[in-house]
Write a structure and sequence with these properties.
- The chain has 752 residues and is mainly beta.
- It has 3 domains: 102 residues, Carboxypeptidase-like, regulatory domain (Immunoglobulin-like), CATH 2.60.40; 100 residues, Ferric Hydroxamate Uptake Protein, Chain A, domain 1, CATH 2.170.130; 429 residues, Maltoporin, Chain A.
- Helices cover 5% and strands 59% of the residues.
- 38% of the residues are buried.
Length: 752
């Protein structure tokens, strides 16, 4: 008889839930801090801006919302027994000092989540670091611990010993197969104006992500201003960018476009001066987004992406046949997302996406069509993914979901009219996952076990990838983190990921006769907050690889059949250190990594070309003092990096030999080159200083800003690679430096 009153007492409570957004533009505010005044009850919004506070005794309360850079807001509420109160709020950006109770989104995430090797990037960080020609997300990621670059101009991501094809890259649910496509890899396909925020999991990522061995980069575009029409026009040395956003009935839209225009300037110069010159290359990308909210519980989001590089070269010579070469490659994709709050405790999203990466090479002999060549390769996938979250209570949240993917990977080669190679691979993938975040000791010890199961159609294989995360807050500002997980990958690139320059990738599925490439991650780390705006992490990690499919050293640029791939294993180990400080007038970070990466083939272990032992980046940004008249209240950002050399193989000798060819009766002589082991030598260490200055301005009655960047300020000549010149005697070693002089660039932005 004592049990019934106890049950009634436990159930005699209510809850409050809703979304928090920016009052100026309607953007959702992730990890906003929320609490009930004069109580210990509180919560935080998730990455979609949704929150819920459970088990509130009936009564009158004052609920307070706080977020760094925004004014605190409070509301008087009444909680009724066994009922949920829906309360959506909008926070106004703050122009005054932040109150002491305000907690940053990163700090709130530190208290609420169980995750390791996670870094959140805002648009401010992407656009304010020094850059070559314009801000770029991938270039900013390269300043993080555990991320290695091959040379000064590389835009590839080698994360903790992984090759670039081991990174899962998503844009609003669209799989982006090659994010570093523009201008031979110098620019990524993400227009920086349209990026709201990006999340990088450098390892140990949870069960809701899969199908890659090393990392996850999730890019989220801006929601679009739901309050008023606005836009930005940006003009730089290489590209022009345009962004337009504004409200629509019950929603918002965003449209962003970018195009390089050197070809147009050269065309105009040719028309004016009649010099008969042209630049046959350009790139463009377009990103669009529409949000529609038919009710407070439902939100539909449509996102589109299209980015393409085009090279069209035609040679006209009166003494030789006319030729034309065309090369086109790029990413395309569309996603439709439905977000639904089914009940205050049950939240879900369903995403359908189409993605395509294509490469086409055309050679036309305009006088003799029998010499024509056409190469076409592409990957198309259709994905549907359902993610659900159930809030059991303040100490227990469960997430689960299912994902289906159908991919078609095809290539068509036409040679000289009568030789054709046409193949197509269709593969299917079905994955389901479950993960649960449990606070075993509230505010002290939490765990996040997870399991991802995958069915792969090639060979009809079923795999299980377990994951586990643990967080122990042994002090209010100090946490010990641990993560372990198994990861599988089902499509790989068949062109070498060790090449110094790679414009595009050729993807192939793991066939039914090949073992599935697998990696195991083990990560431990300490995360320390010295104050609300200063974060320090140190993370040792170990990653073990099995069943890697590795192209031969000669397969640098072009595709190869999957049966020519070599089977190998490997490992990567190291320590990443990260210190970040964010204030009103100063921000920056220091990242340092020491890492060891090895691969093993039949002949033994070797270091891949991206095995960099030490890597240091220092980024510092300040507000320029008022004592400097022309630049006062502007920003000055610097980036300095120091890195040890990458491994390479070198020709160490050559000798002459004579041969007799009985078919042609030829007695001749040739040279045989003797090379070292592929990682026997190391390039010299490299370092560089970059500078960025930006200042607000008004032009034509519009607000805007101008910027100046200088890359390689003190003219450091970092050696990217060597080649041997055998045309001289004795042979000489040629050094190649990609930034031989300081490179300035400038541009301006106008906001309307």
């Amino acid at each position: 008889m004592y049990l019934i009153p106890l049950i009634i007492l436990l159930n005699a409570s209510g809850s409050v839930s809703g979304f928090v957004s920016d009052a100026s533009n309607g953007e959702r505010l992730a990890y906003t801090n929320i609490y009930l005044e004069n109580t210990i009850l509180g919560s935080a919004t998730n990455d979609k801006g949704y929150y819920i506070i459970h088990k509130i005794p009936p009564g009158h309360y004052t609920i307070i919302f706080s977020y760094i850079g925004y004014e605190n807001i409070s509301r008087d509420i009444i909680i009724e027994e066994n009922r949920n109160l829906t309360l959506n709020v909008e926070l106004n950006p703050s122009a005054i000092e932040i109150d002491e109770i305000t907690v940053s989104a990163e700090r709130t995430r530190f208290e609420q989540t169980v995750e390791v090797s996670h870094i959140l990037f805002t648009q401010r960080e992407i656009t304010s670091v020094p850059r070559l020609f314009e801000g770029d997300l991938i270039k900013t990621l390269q300043l993080m611990p555990g991320v290695v670059t091959m040379h000064d101009l590389s835009n590839k991501l080698h994360i903790r010993g992984g090759s670039p094809d081991e990174n899962l890259v998503l844009l609003d649910g669209i799989t982006v197969y090659n994010p570093s496509t523009h201008l031979a890899g110098l620019f990524s396909t993400f227009n920086p104006d349209a990026v709201g925020y990006a999340e990088l999991y450098a390892g140990g990522f949870p069960a809701n992500y899969g199908d890659r061995l090393s990392s996850v980069l999730s890019v989220n575009t801006k929601e679009g201003n739901s309050k008023e029409f606005a836009g930005t026009v940006s003009l730089g040395l290489v590209t022009t960018r345009l962004l337009i956003e504004g409200p629509i009935p019950k929603g918002s839209f965003l449209l962003s476009a970018r195009r390089s225009y050197f070809d147009a300037l050269v065309w105009l110069y040719d028309k004016i001066r009649n010099r008969d010159i042209s630049l046959p290359y350009y790139f463009y990308d377009v990103m669009a987004k529409v949000n529609f909210n038919p009710s407070p519980e439902n939100r539909f989001t449509l996102t589109g992406l299209s980015g393409t590089d085009v090279l069209d070269f035609q040679e006209i010579d009166t003494e030789a046949p006319d030729e034309r070469i065309g090369l086109e490659w790029g990413n395309r994709g569309v996603s439709l997302r439905w977000r639904r709050v089914f009940t205050p405790k049950f939240y879900g999203e369903i995403v359908g996406a189409w993605s395509n990466f294509l490469t086409e090479l055309r050679y036309e002999d305009l006088d003799d069509s029998t010499e024509n060549l056409n190469l076409y390769e592409d990957i198309i996938d259709y994905t549907i993914k359902c993610d659900f979250s159930y809030f059991w209570g303040e100490n227990h949240t469960m997430e689960f979901g299912i994902e289906g993917k159908q991919s078609t990977i095809g290539y068509n080669w036409d040679f000289e009219e009568d030789i054709t190679l046409d193949q197509e691979h269709d593969i299917g993938l079905i994955a389901s996952y479950v993960k649960s975040k449990i606070f075993l000791i509230p505010s002290v010890l939490s765990i996040q076990p997870g399991l991802r199961s995958i069915y792969y159609s090639e060979g009809k294989r079923l795999l299980c990838d377990p994951r586990l995360g643990i967080k122990y807050l042994f002090k209010p500002n100090t946490a010990l983190n641990f993560a372990f997980g198994k990861y599988s990958q089902f499509i790989i690139t068949v062109n070498s990921q060790e090449s110094y320059f790679s414009i595009f990738d050729f993807w192939r599925p793991v066939d039914e006769e090949q073992a599935i490439p697998t990696a195991y991650h083990a990560i431990a780390g300490i995360e320390q907050w010295f104050d609300e705006k200063t974060k320090f992490t140190i993370e040792p990690y170990y990653k073990k690889y099995y069943n890697l499919l590795i192209p031969t050293e000669d397969d640098i640029y072009f595709s190869a059949p999957t049966e020519s791939l070599q089977l190998g294993d490997g490992y990567s180990a190291g320590v990443d250190v990260f210190l970040k400080k964010t204030l009103k007038d100063i921000f920056g970070w220091i990242s340092y990594s020491i890492s060891f990466t090895k691969r093993r083939l039949e002949e033994g272990y070797y270091s891949p070309r991206y095995d960099r032992r030490h890597n240091l980046n220092i980024v510092l940004g300040i507000t320029i003092p008022k004592s400097i008249p022309l630049l006062k209240n502007g920003t000055l950002s610097t980036r300095w990096y120091f890195a040890t050399g990458l491994p390479y193989a070198q020709d160490i000798a050559r000798h002459r030999y004579y041969y007799w060819d009985p078919r042609w009766g030829i007695n001749d002589m040739d040279w045989e080159i003797i090379s070292s082991a592929r990682d026997a030598y190391r390039l010299p260490l490299s370092h560089r200083l970059d500078l960025h200055i930006e200042k607000n301005m008004r032009l034509f009655g519009l607000d805007g800003s101008w910027y100046i960047d200088v890359i390689n300020v003190y003219n450091r000549k970092n050696i990217a690679f060597y080649t041997m010149d055998y045309d001289v005697d004795p042979p000489e070693i040629n050094k190649y430096v990609l930034l031989p002089v300081p490179i300035p660039s400038f541009g301006f932005n106008l906001r309307f």
